[in-house]
Each structure stands twice: as structure tokens, then as C-alpha cells.
């Protein structure tokens, strides 16, 4: 069935944050890369400033894997709300939304729908930010044009073996 397939493009993703990273994965044979986290702190990203600020303010040790109530792990930035979840004070009293069958609210440490809604509105006291492993590298809000220019310059430097 697959004998006519000459090549399958592989797109590398996860933790790619610099032009050097892109260069490394292209050298390893990837056809391209997917980058998410680096664009969260762009001006063009429509997340609220409070959400973006959690990236800028984070340290490497704040980037953690949490278990979501729907049964999947997710990478997030530790904040006061996650601390509350871990201390068991955020247990849902009811479930008005029934958003997914795999979530039993009586066994859930918190309601992820409410937490994500709150963080999407910038209410980080009642929610948290999902993020890639390199979110702590964000230092400021930049335009997409500035981010792409920096990535291109870093890629070219890596190509010339200058970095
Ligand atoms: C705000 C945010 C939300 C995300 N939500 C999901 C998600 O719901 N499901 C998923 O599979 N990946 C999710 N991801 C992970 C992306 O798939 C990941 O960012 C992408 O592979 C690129 O990796 P990078 O962010 O390290 O560049 C999310 C990433 C971010 C930054």
C-alpha cells in the first residue's frame, strides 16, 4: 500500500525557540518546524496581556506538567491557582457544562473549562496558562516581524557555524 510513497515530510515540534533550534532540526532531516510558544508573547497574539505576562515572568522551574481533569497531561506555568488545585481547594461543586465524558466532576481536582475560560479573559487568579517547555525564555512582547527576523538571523548564523 505504501510502496509508491517516495517521502513523508516530517515537521519537528515542541520546544523550538531559536534559529539555531530550527537549523538543528532541519539538519536532522525535518522538512519544517512548528512553533507555538514563541508567538504567544507577540503583539499579534490575541491572548490577554495578563496571560502573556505569565510567560514573561516565568522561570524554568515554573514550567511543569499537570494532569488535566479530562485525563490528559499538559504543560503549564505554575501559579497560585495551580498551587490551589494541588492543595485540593478547587474541587468543583457541580458541573453545569458537561463538556467531555472523560471528566467526572466528583473526582476532579478542578473544572478545566472554567480555568481555561478565566485565563482566556486574563483572570489568572482563577486560571493558568498552558505553555511550551521554553516559555520561560520569553522576555518581552515583540511583533511577529521582529520574531521572524531574529529567527532568520540566528538560522543564518548557525548555517555559517558562527554560533
Ligand atoms: C497556549 C498553548 C495552548 C496549547 N494547547 C494545546 C492543546 O490543547 N493540545 C495540544 O496537543 N497541544 C497544545 N499546545 C501545544 C502545541 O501543540 C505546541 O505549542 C506546539 O507543538 C509547538 O511547540 P512549542 O510551543 O514548544 O513551540 C498548546 C501550546 C500553547 C502555547
From TrEMBL:
InterPro entries, per database record = Aldolase_TIM, NMO
GO MF term list: nitronate monooxygenase activity
Q: Is Signal found in the keyword set?
A: no
The record's Gene3D superfamilies line, in alphabetical order, gives:
Aldolase class I
| Record-linked CDD domains | NPD_like
For this UniProt record, the keywords arranged alphabetically read as follows: Flavoprotein, FMN, Oxidoreductase
Instruction: Quote the PANTHER family the UniProt record gives.
Output: 2-NITROPROPANE DIOXYGENASE
Q: What is this protein called?
A: NAD(P)H-dependent flavin oxidoreductase YrpB
Which taxonomic lineage is given here? Bacteria, Pseudomonadati, Bacteroidota, Bacteroidia, Bacteroidales
Amino acid at each position: 500500500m505504501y510502496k509508491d510513497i517516495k517521502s513523508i515530510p516530517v515537521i519537528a515540534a515542541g520546544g523550538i525557540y531559536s534559529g539555531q533550534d530550527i537549523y538543528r532540526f532541519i539538519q536532522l532531516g525535518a522538512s519544517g518546524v512548528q512553533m507555538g510558544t514563541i508567538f504567544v508573547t507577540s503583539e499579534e497574539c490575541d491572548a490577554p496581556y495578563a496571560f502573556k505576562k505569565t510567560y514573561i515572568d516565568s522561570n524554568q522551574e515554573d514550567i511543569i506538567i499537570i494532569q488535566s481533569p479530562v485525563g490528559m497531561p499538559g504543560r503549564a506555568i505554575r501559579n497560585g491557582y495551580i498551587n490551589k488545585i494541588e492543595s485540593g481547594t478547587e474541587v468543583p461543586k457541580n458541573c453545569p457544562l458537561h463538556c467531555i465524558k472523560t471528566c467526572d466532576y466528583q473526582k476532579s481536582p478542578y473544572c478545566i473549562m472554567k480555568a481555561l475560560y478565566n485565563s482566556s479573559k486574563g483572570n489568572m487568579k482563577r486560571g493558568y496558562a498552558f505553555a511550551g517547555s521554553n516559555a520561560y525564555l520569553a522576555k518581552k512582547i515583540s511583533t511577529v516581524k521582529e520574531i521572524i527576523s531574529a529567527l532568520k538571523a540566528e538560522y543564518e548564523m548557525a548555517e555559517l557555524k558562527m554560533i
